[in-house]
Amino acid sequence: MRMRFSQIMISFAITLGLLIGFEIVTSTLLPAIGWKEYRLTFNVLVILFMAIRMDSPLVPWLIMGLQIIHSIFSIEGWALGTLAGIIVMMSANYLKEILQLTTAFMTMFTVQLFQFIWYLTVTVIICLKISDFDKFGLILWSFIPGSILLSLISPVVFWLLGTIWRVPNESGPRGVEI
């Protein structure tokens, strides 16, 4: 399925609105109820969806746009997230033909696998920036509980994003060509 530029911009604007809503909930409401140690990074789910289900040279630019919006709510910064997102996108592109997200379990497993790659990349870069690999395990562990929760809700989020981006079901053509 081929999308027009106006369709892309509308879908991207709706996705940004959804991401902003998720970011507001995770940066204000969750800490207010006592969940301060861990963070739910919905931007990773959105980027994983784009990497797995969309075929386009525009995806890296869309990832950068998402990361810029995400950086408003996070100290992580857009550059670090964009780099990790591009690495995950490239690895997902290599595995795209064998990724069958036909069941909720496979979606959760695939999302957890790519989140681990994402967080491993981010942790290595953070440790390089602070010149201290002694904190590697602690930094990586801080991402794991949130990633498990995100994996559990990923089938619903992927369905929602599939509706926004008008991605055909898994048995149809591979992704959306832009």
What fraction, in percent, of the residue positions are helical? Answer: over 70%
Uncertain stretches: none
How many β strands by DSSP?
A: 2
Order of secondary-structure elements: HHEHHHHE
Structural class: mainly alpha
**What strand order characterises the main sheet?**
1-2
Portion in beta strands: under 5%
Mean pLDDT: 85
What shape does the CA trace take?
globular
Q: Which radius of gyration do the C-alpha atoms yield?
A: 16 Å
Please tell me about this protein's structure.
This protein is an all-alpha fold and 178 residues long. Strands 1-2 form a two-stranded parallel sheet. The relative contact order is 0.18.
Structural features:
mainly alpha; single chain
In short:
The protein has 178 residues and is mainly α. The chain is built from 6 helices and 2 strands; from the N terminus they run H-H-E-H-H-H-H-E.
Secondary-structure map:
Layout: H1 5-32, H2 42-53, E1 54-55, H3 59-73, H4 78-95, H5 104-130, H6 136-165, E2 176-177
Parallel strand pairs: 1-2
